[in-house]
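During the reporting period the student researcher (J.K.) took over the structure-prediction task from the postdoctoral fellow and processed the backlog of single-chain submissions. One of the processed entries is reproduced below for the supervisory committee.
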Amino acid sequence: MDWLRTVLARYATLQGRARRREFWRFLLHSMVIYAVLMLVDALTGTFSFELQFGLLSGLWLLFITTPSGAVAIRRLHDTDRSGWWLLLGLLPFIGQLILLFFWIQEGDTGDNRYGPDPKTNSLV
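J.K. obtained the following structure tokens:
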């Protein structure tokens, strides 16, 4: 649960940097929780196939939207890119591929303009 606690503790903090491990763990676990909640919604009859979410999964999406954006921006900061690059996600397909490429990259070694290296400053 440390993956969730780390991101939620900084849920609206756009300053600083996030390691690849922090970003991908949060994303993976959030998606698994969403899938489980979708299954529970489908079993209870609250899932809408048109909207692709139900009562519980919709609440999860509302809960996780701000922390997801914040950790995505901090991940871009780790590669010495501005958070404005996140707007590339609005471009169909190519924008998401470019963001994926940025998020996969190794972060800058040492300090950059967004803060100290998170690899050397934490054990996460």
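The committee noted the following: The longest helix spans residues 20-44.
J.K. will present the remaining backlog at the next meeting.
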